[in-house]
Amino acid sequence: MSNGRPENYPSPVWMRRVLLIAAVYNLVWGAWVIFFPLVPFRWLGIDPPNYPGLWQCIGMIVGVYGIGYGAAALDPVRHWPIVLVGLLGKIFGPIGFVGAAMKGEFPWIAGLTIITNDLIWWVPFGAILWHAWQQESGNRRRIFEGLPERTGVVSGATPIPHSMSRTAVAVSVSISDPQPMIQRLS
């Protein structure tokens, strides 16, 4: 067992590749916005912001996500929280943009960046999270398969002997008998 899951369940290669591509994309996009903050506005033909430093901060945040995606690429199932945070940002960012654009705070043309920054990642990130959830829920089932339902009773405040203090134990509770059952695993 490695990283809390069996070795014979590696993440599919495509997940690692998607996360590496996301890492590179975010690092490049973030660096571009940091070093050339007004270029995207010129390309889109819209007025640049009054405070380009704020736009550069957004570039820094995007770049930092790139570092996270690179780390998650090492083991997508283990690092699913990074993917979840990324997906949430990629969902809430466009929602925020649409709200601001509807109020006239942003021109709609600025939403073009949402396509590559957010929308194209929804499906692969969702698939990675689905896979991670299936792996983790499957592992929980495998841990408890084959354990006898009842091997010994420990009632109330009965202390566990010192000899068992560093021994792994499994605890189960039956619906018909809610008293905890403890089984020594090693």
Q: How would you characterize the overall build of this protein?
A:
The protein is mainly α. The chain has 2 domains: 132 residues, no CATH class; 36 residues, no CATH class. The protein has 5 helices and 2 strands, in the order H-H-H-H-H-E-E. A two-stranded antiparallel ribbon has the order 1-2. The longest helix has 33 residues. The chain is elongated and about 55 Å long.
End-to-end C-alpha gap? 16 Å
Order of helices and strands: HHHHHEE
**What are the low-pLDDT stretches, counting only 5+ consecutive residues below 50?**
162-167
Overall average residue pLDDT: 82
The best one-word shape is elongated
Helix content range: 55-70%
The helix-and-strand class reads mainly alpha
Counting H and I runs of at least 4 residues, what is the number of helices? 5
Rg measurement, Å:
25 Å
Number of domains as seen in the coordinates: 2
Q: Give the strand order, joined by hyphens, for the main sheet.
A: 1-2
Count of β-strands: 2
Q: Give the oligomeric state.
A: single chain
Largest sheet: 2 strands, antiparallel
Summarize the topology:
Elements lengths: L12 H23 L3 H6 L7 H23 L5 H23 L9 H33 L24 E4 L8 E4 L2
Antiparallel strand pairs: 1-2
